Amino acid sequence: MRAVGGFDAxxxxxxxxxxxxxxxxxxxxxxxHLTIFLCTYYVVSGSISSHQVRMFTTRAAVLRRFAEEELGxxxxxxxxxxxxATEIMGCARILIxxxxxxxxxxxxxxxxxxxxxxxxxxxxxxxxAVRLVxxxxxxWARTWLTRRLGSR
Length: 152
Known about the structure:
The chain has 152 residues and is mainly alpha-helical. It contains six helices and no strands.
C-alpha cells in the first residue's frame, strides 16, 4: 500500500475503489481473485455513499484520472480500455437519470475517446438511439417510454 501511495483522502468517496485500481496496476500479477465475498457494504440514508450524484461523479472522475495517468503504461490493453470505458458510460447513465446532463455528456465523450468501439452498456434499441440522438436524449426517451408503458 505504501508503494502506491495509500488512500487518497481528497476524494469524498470511492477511496478504496481508487486504491484498488492503483494496486491492481502496480501489482496485478500478484493479486489473486477470490470467488467469495469478504465484506458487505451498507448504504445508510444521508451518508456520502447515498448521494448518487456525488458517488457517480467521483467514480467517473477516478476512472478518468486512472485512464489518463496510465495510458502510457505497457500492458494497458484494449480490453482494459473497453472495461474502463464501459464503467464510465455506466456512470454517465446514472448521472443522466439524476439530471446531471453536462457531467454525463463529458463522461460519455471521454469514454468514447478512450475506446470508440465499446458499445453503450444497454440493450440494442437504446444503443441505436444513443448513436442517433446521443446519450442524454436517448436516456430521456427510455425514461419516458418506461414510465409511459410500464416495465413489461
